[in-house]
Fold FAD-dependent oxidoreductase.
Amino acid sequence: MSMVYDVAIVGAGFGGLAAAAELSKYGKRVAVFEASNELGGSAGKFERGGYRFQSGATVGMGFEEGGVLDQLYESLQLEKPQMTLLNPIMDIHMPDRVIHYYREKVEWYKEIERHFKEAASSIQAFYEEVFRVGSLVDNLLDYRPVFPPKTIRDITQLFPMINPSSIKLLPYLNQTVYDRLKKFNLHKHEGFQTFLNGELMDSVQTSVENCPAFLGYAALQTFHKGAYAVHGGLATVAEQLAGYVKEQGNEVFMRYPIRLIEKKEDRFVLHSKRNSEFEAKQLVLNHSVHNLQDTLSEDLMNQSSIYPEKEEKRDTWGAFIIHAGVEESVFQNTNVLYHQFIDQNHPNDLHDGGQFLMSLSDPQDQQMAPEGKRSLTISTHTNLEQWWEAEEYEQKKQEMTDRLLATVDYYFPGFQANLDLVLPGTPVTFQKWLRRSKGKVGGYAPTGKYSWLNSYSIRSGIPGVYLCGDTVFPGAGTLGVTLSGLTAARELLR
Ligand SMILES: Cc1cc2nc3c(=O)[nH]c(=O)nc-3n(C[C@H](O)[C@H](O)[C@H](O)COP(=O)(O)OP(=O)(O)OC[C@H]3O[C@@H](n4cnc5c(N)ncnc54)[C@H](O)[C@@H]3O)c2cc1C
């Protein structure tokens, strides 16, 4: 143990890597510690049987001009990876129709007219509000606020954000999306709500009733700014960020789980495998608030503003996922890469197979699958507890796999017969490979109009220790966690 790093970063998810790249850019001596042998965490990859599979996240956001990732690439002078702009963003397979979810507003409005003729003008008026309020939220996030504010400086940083345009946001801070639907007389429109719930579950992890309006609007408009299939998967981005960190002379330690962090005098000591120890002056913790009590010493945990008993009770989803390889011919009649399925028998179940997303690899992207095949990821939100009852585990896993595959087969006949590799994963898998405690993924699910006020800040409460990732503001998604990583880096650099 000789080198004392300026900053040690625990976890090479998008949050940790964004922070590491930003700190490296400003000349900090940085070390990233990643427990697994893959970069990118929930947005990483693994390879099996000639295929590349995305570990969780598949839809890339923030790469449009001026977007968060676009700006990051520009500031690091990195070339963006090849990617396919999605239009339609996805096809939504509902029991009685297939909605093409177009990116372009004009096309999207025509699609709304095709499917929801009687309510089209109200839905379009609702979308006008989505775009208007979504861009107001973007303007605020450009300030990269530390939220919730913890210090006097955090509070003073909020002052410039108060202006005539941000004041217009106020009505959307104390209403849910459902409240807004009432204003447009859409709260009883089942078909449109089923559609909206699908989009909100994928982006904000919750339904119209529980989703704060401004959050839901920001997420909905993000799809229309540009959703991308990054070639090689989102792991390509993680690899580029880690490459940048190393080029600046810094270190990324793979297969180095941090088991314990304690404070000794003015330094933090990180304990890893085979009794190795590393020292750092400051820390960025990207391995989720769920995991903090397993790594921080009791003394540090007591100093933090996280109360484990309270944290454990917060609403969090798990994910059930299937990685599979399939014959290309099954999808020869569609050039759409992302497909959302609403179970024909249970259209109102938002989780556990009631609705789910299937992401197909781009046929042009040869890193993902052998010739003539496609790699795919199917994922659905799942309640966590059921997966930790050992006796029924295998049976449940098989039942859920069968249910999801059968639903895809219903919409794409011949799908099941043409699968050549099927790898299902549960919250137990997410805990094992990505160290997500109890398999909790995607941050905290909003539970009502004021739930955004319960966010954790990048400030841990421990001097010199910053948090980033999907369990801190602004929350889940590769775009959100990149923002928290960059905000943590900026505050640390002050
Ligand atoms: C099924 C699924 C689908 C999703 N789809 C999308 C999508 O399409 N688009 C999108 O933008 N987002 C999506 N998301 C959300 C997105 O993947 C996450 O919000 C984001 O990737 C989380 O990043 P993070 O920085 O918080 O860290 P994580 O990705 O959780 O990474 C944390 C890293 O820390 C490491 N680690 C943990 N403990 C330790 C330790 N003690 N020592 C060292 N390392 C440790 C882990 O191995 C991991 O690599 C999806 C998530 C899931 C689960």
